[in-house]
Amino acid sequence: MGIILVASLIIGGVVASAYFGINAFNNHNNSNEHPNQTLPPLNDVQRYLDSMGNLTDAVKAEFAPVIQSGTLDYVKDAIKEINDLGNYSNSPMVREVIREVAKDGIIDYKDLWRIQDIDGDYVKNFGDPNPVNPDTMGLGFGDLNSLFVYKLKDLTNKTEGEELLKNIPNVNVSSLIPLAGNTYHSYQKALDISSMDPVVKYYSAKIGFNWTDNSKTYGTFLVDGELSHLGYDHSSTPGIIIPAYYLTHERLSQHCGTSATTNTALLRAAGYDAHFVDCTIHTVTEVTIEGKDYVIDYNRIWPKDEYFKQASDLHPERIL
Predict the structure, then answer these.
(1) Domains: count for the chain
(2) Which of 69, 96, 113, 268 could bond to 105 as cystine, CB 3.0-4.6 Å?
(3) pLDDT at residue 37 above 60?
(4) Is residue 183 in a domain?
């Protein structure tokens, strides 16, 4: 039968056609021998990404490490959060944040929190007038300060912010509600927003050190010619006392955390290498002044080594 077929093909002058036809037949047979050689099915992450209407291919590509892991976990919430940003969802900042949190192939709850506040201004995306700009007004004091500390009404109205700056420090400063910006309060949050606060910047130019001797071993920390801490206030102040509020309300505090946060914020704004130190039962500020390391406890300045030697029950647990 084969001989008759070949002969008929030769007679028809179509040897080449027969050759390619036979090869195609063989290839078809070979593919049937390996039925599993197909593209892998889309996993749940890729399928969910593809269902989002606001994400470009470039943004989806940033999720590549998570797609490879194939697990949803917090990924679905993260993808939806970014898609819900609408026109902002494809901005360079969004891509950078996705790249940062997805690089290990896992998105956990901390990564989700980061995505829920894309620009890192402590105002969650859904309540942020511009979720990819931490300082919408452009005057340097940030969205959380603008909205919750100084209660500016319209962050697109630069004139309102400029009027505020003209009146520093004689302005109305609010203590923070516990979930201002829908983000949890922390000492880190207080320090970060204080780095942009106009009242803190104003008073940072008025700090000083009153040394007890020329060797600058011991001293007191001053703000505007007075002790940085002026006493205790045991009244029930609504909200959380932040440095700007403390500085404009007689510098009275209920506990050491307010004083240490304020001292640290002021020193940093003045250009010093300063850190908030949480010793569990007490908080202080560590600072380097003219090459020497000190601890400031409320108003008093001590050499760092001596301070912790005498306060042997204090052990730094967290340094910010």
Answers:
(1) 3
(2) 69
(3) no
(4) yes
**Strands 300-303 vs 252-253: parallel, antiparallel or unpaired:** unpaired
Residue 238: predicted pLDDT: 62
Please report the DSSP string for 119-185 in residue order: T-SSS-GGG-SSTT-S-TTSSSS-HHIIIIIS--S-TT-HHHHHHHHHTTTSS--PPBPTTGGGS--
Max Cα-Cα span within the chain: 117
Apex 282 CA angle, 148 and 288, nearest 5: 85
Instruction: Give the pLDDT score at 316.
Output: 75
Given this model, what pLDDT does residue 281 score?
A: 85
Same-domain check for residues 223 and 96: no
Express as a percent the part of the chain with pLDDT over 70. 86
- 20 falls within a domain: yes
- Cα distance between residue 279 and residue 179, in whole Å: 25
Write down the H helix ranges in the chain.
2-11, 15-33, 44-50, 57-61, 64-69, 75-83, 92-102, 109-116, 143-144, 158-166, 187-194, 198-204, 243-247, 256-269, 304-310
Structure token pair of residue 234: 């045991």
